[in-house]
Request: fold
Amino acid sequence: MNAAMKAGLRVEGTSCRLGGVEVLRGVDLKVQPGEFVGLIGPNGVGKSTLLRIVAGLLRPHAGRVYFEGADVAGLTAAERARSVALVPQLAPVTFGFTALEVVTMGQYPHLGRFQAEGVSERARTVEALRATETEAFRDRPVVTLSGGERQRVFLARALAQRPRLLLLDEPTSNLDVQYQLKVLGLVRP
Reply:
């Protein structure tokens, strides 16, 4: 395996069934470091499923996913969290956490078990809030935010996480045109 391919993402022959229905069959994909790749297709064809497999949140029924030469299925949850961030299509329930708390959670993969975030982690959190223009509602519970505001908070969390691979599932779907352009500018290599 050459060094360039070892540093990228490879999806080989990946298939997946959900609820007895085959949603992916024999997917192959190669992404080099620094590439910006978009998956397009109609609803229900497996784009979100493929992203969840690449993130290691779902195991394929066949095939393998390699990131930086390592089989994603063999990585621990902590190793995956330090390497890959997924911003889902629908923001998960946050149980009353504020925007600041949710973005701070992006730092956790880089901290020890009972280690509190320090000055550098707080600075990264503030920078992620600033970059996504979410600092104005940092103290508001995420459940009180609009869909677009919530989407930007979860993008901020992913940026604070410092992943080497950022996966975005319909990242601009709840955003107005102004923020769609800003988000795409933020994540472009």
